[in-house]
Amino acid sequence: EEKIALKRVPRLVEKLESIPDVTSELEASIREDGYVLDSASPTLHGVRVGIQKTEQDIRRQMDQYLTGKNAQYLSDTIITIRNDRYVLPVKAEYKSVFGGTVHDQSSTGQTLFMEPQAVVNLNNKLREYQIQEKREVERILWELSQKLMPYTNSLHQNHYVLARLDVVNAKALYAHELRATEPIIDANNYVALWQAWHPLLEREKAVANDIILGEEYQAIVITGPNTGGKTILLKTVGVIQLMAQMGLYIPAGENSRVGVFTEIFADIGDEQSIEQNLSTFSSHMSNIVSILKQINDKSLLLIDEIGSGTDPQEGSSLAIAILDYIASKQSYVIASTHYPELKAYGYDRPKTINASMEFDGDTLQPTYQLLLGVPGRSNAFDISKRLGLPSIIIDQARGLLSEEDQDLNAMISDLEQKRRRAQRDADKMRHQLELSTQLLEDLQRETEQFQANKARLLEEAKERANTLIEQSQDDADKILSEIRELQLRSKQSTVKEHEMIEKKTALKDLKHEQALKKNKVLRKEKAKKALQVGQSVEVLSFGQRGTLVEKVNDKEWVVQMGIIKMKIDIEDLSPIAEAQEAKQQVIVKSARASHVSSELDLRGKRYEEAMKDLELYLDAAILANYPRVTIIHGRGTGAIQQGVHKVLRSHRSVASFEFAPMNTGGNGATIVTFK
Question: Residues of 521-556 as b/e, b for ≥16 C-beta within 10 angstroms?
Fold first, then answer.
């Protein structure tokens, strides 16, 4: 069997009550099909062993009759049971010769089912065991019932819940087998069944239809000849609507809608009655009279061949009047008729539409396809001509039709042709829309995947670059620590001061830019962020050098190339690295050339130069193991002093700093204390 996965139904499952005290004993005593197991009691086990042994003895004894000289008296070589006793089929004429007790005979009377005298005692013994078994089973069931008595309410509750679960499971299995879909419940009773078919018809053979009711119109009048499929369409609507209101999935396409009607009335089929002396017309009219007494604005009516079974003129008039009355009650109705007088009904009434069942003029066969907005027409002339009726008769019949009827049939035929063309165009456009939608979804999915991969690769590249940078910084700290340790151990430094400063400088220059040189993606991203007005760049598409004049937006810059200014895409720009300035040597005051001075004089220097010298000097002073030093920055505009303090605040080896005393420079100098 095919299995399907069902979601849990928590509100029902939570209502199940457990009975652990008795459950284990029940499982050990009774099988799922109700059979009491041998393990239910030792007595029952013993009795059943006796039954089995006695049956074996009986069969062993009776086998001798099947193979011995008595076999000639048997009509068949089998052992059977009659009235709970083992017997043999004996030919009637050998009754007295065979001997024994007759328990039954065949329908022809030629075979008697006889119990041989030799097994009478064994059969009696078997019967005694069977009676003992029955009594022991009854005793076991009585005891188990007594143990279950305190849980009567729980059992009733579980029975109710399990029944509900069984219904839910049955609905799910039926929906799966039917390949049904979940309908959308519309509070305004808007019914839209897409590609709906009758659930009792084979899905592959049934003709599916789109059926719409309730939004623009509340009445559908299906006109046209019989055998076109009008009746099955009415039944399909009724069954599907009832299925939905019972909580079942429906045999229709996705996004189908159903309403919630308080009553669904149907008058379908010929209900003439001999007993009640009712004709077809009387039967239909009795039903309609009963229905019209009960309808309201939430009623759905399905009427087959409305007004039929009487004079056509009177019947069509009655049909129109009945439909008008239903409309006055604002009820919903789908009615079929073959009266030509109702072909124009849908054009004369609000919220009403005509419809018909399509007929293939080439094959002269119905297609069972519903055509909304197109009234039905008779095809009697075409069918008769195809079947061989003489043309002279057909032409005379056409002439007997009124000019209005001929014009109406011509109009309907033209509408059918236009409808077919429109349907073909709609199918073509629907197919193209599906292809376009699928293509758009594929493109969106690929774009999202590309963006995700791009972000992931960029992040991975950044992580690798940062790992290299952190490793380089750790290596630098390790080297400096080793140098400092060696210098502290040695009474006389074996490392020259400028060599240590240069080594520290080289290590500090190991920043993101060095790591990024090997990574084009990161270098390009960093270059975009680093672009500034006045910066020299190369315009890749022209192979020309230019200067950034103005940033237009995140994607464009105005670039000056000679006497020409142009807007250039940022992807087309590559920054040009300016020549590195010659490294400035730190000027220190020192009593001895081989030692770092305890003072650094930054007066008269540019800001950038002063900050670079300060960083180099602090590293050298730390290596020289100074507890404190003095930075002379002067007063001036205060820019150098602010820059010095900013560097000192962020330096990890600086414990504190303060302005010098008034007699040693005041706020023109800063004393730095190291950790």
Answer: ebbeeeeeeeeeeeeebebeeeeeebbbeeeeeeeb
